[in-house]
Predict the 3D structure of the following.
Amino acid sequence: MSSSTLTREQSAKAFDGHQYVYSHESSTVGCKMKFGVYVPEKAEKEQVPLLIFLSGLTCTEQNFITKSGVQSLASKYGFIVANPDTSPRGCKIEGDSEKWNFGESAGYYVDATESKWSKNYRMFSYINEEFYDLIVKNFNVNPKKIGILGHSMGGHGALISFFKRPGQYQSVSAFAPICNASASEWGINAYTNFFGQDETLWKQYDATELVASYNGPKPHAPVLVDQGSDDSFKDNQLFPERFIVACKTASFPLELREQAGYDHGYYFIMTFLEDHFKYHKNEFEHAQ
Amino acid sequence: MSSSTLTREQSAKAFDGHQYVYSHESSTVGCKMKFGVYVPEKAEKEQVPLLIFLSGLTCTEQNFITKSGVQSLASKYGFIVANPDTSPRGCKIEGDSEKWNFGESAGYYVDATESKWSKNYRMFSYINEEFYDLIVKNFNVNPKKIGILGHSMGGHGALISFFKRPGQYQSVSAFAPICNASASEWGINAYTNFFGQDETLWKQYDATELVASYNGPKPHAPVLVDQGSDDSFKDNQLFPERFIVACKTASFPLELREQAGYDHGYYFIMTFLEDHFKYHKNEFEHAQ
């Protein structure tokens, strides 16, 4: 581990491995960024697969590692699991902390183009370049077995990362993703700020738009998306039905499961998280 | 469920069952009390075992249900798991919220005798009478299969409940319990407030003292206690070694496992929680 770049903020043994939190100075987003990373005991001896988990609105790097029970699964499956923060922090841009669904804790995993935001709000490049490289370089990752997944805004982040970076990830899955960000109220507000009025820019960060033009490697098994039936955001912000139609039109394989009675929270995520581990494991086994 | 006594504050589906939070007006401690209860799907059809989990200092009913991953295990084993709060709240007694280790969030599961505290700080009676009865009455509990466990101050609470109520619980276990409360700094401060200077009262709520005179039913397998080796409270507040000696002297069966590298937090608890489920299940199978 390169101690010049990473500062250990937290360390706790869990299921024979360790749950860490590190911080580093990010050149991409221009501030100090924290992330969580679970390292299973297995990674002491050999390279292991990596899952990158992107969190939803209001989250820091803490929510997922505290509430999802991921450590048990990461240990069982022998995966490193890394989870970044959801936005730059402390940049003191006017308007970055007035709304819970925009700005700090709500970076939407995009690279903003409007000058007010474009220096710091570059979460797409942060996740898919700086953070990705940092994890691969500093931990014992098998670079041919890397998957990405996320929840809500982070499910959107995982899907757009997969579609915009063909071949970078061997697998993708999502929990209750924002499927059509450029047409949801949250997304419209965020994208108007980040990109201005040019909606062609908005559509470059929208899973339902991107799947139409995706021509990278197809997954072995249909991409796994879980969506709770009792999720109050389902029909007004997430729009899973539109993504189903777009995938069908594009002949892109998707298994979107509606889970009866589940809501939008971490009890929903923890319930189906093992299915996602199995999905990614299966994709890794079929990856070249 | 008697809706006149319980108010549902939270409900979320998890692993086919439900994680609830309820509140009720407690006659024992004289204020509104919240608790968590996970009800597995199995309890819709039949009576199931109950585990009562007591939390540690600084906790509300939220910490355990948010951080431990218990829902996965409660569903798998088919147990109801109920977890009360750690103290009365909102009673506005001078000095009840100045220290993190005394008063609100820090009731030590005792019945205070000093007049300032004795009206509200009756957590021993609350847990072992009012709360116990409330859970058994309102949920589909098999009253012959009830176990108690806890963490830190709550591990102390579980052990003293088992010792002071012979036969009420079929099983007990603990994570990093305060083993000798009347001789630890936290306990001395709390017990001086709750009981005054009479140390014979202190010893009535101290696992290491109580095991000496316990003559109730013996557990089938040695009582399971897990203790992290890297727990910074181990040698100055918890005193597991004293409990080991006291159990040996009393010929009370104890398996105290020192877990190398683990600390005092929830990552430690979540790692070994399934072993505790297995322990209680085994005791239930041998119970009359």
Notes: The longest strand of chain A covers residues 141-151. The mean pLDDT of chain A is 97. Chain A touches chain B at residues 12-16, 19, 66-67, 69, 71-72, 228, 230, 261-263, 265-268, 270-271 (CB under 8 Å). Residues 266-286 of chain A form the longest helix (21 residues).
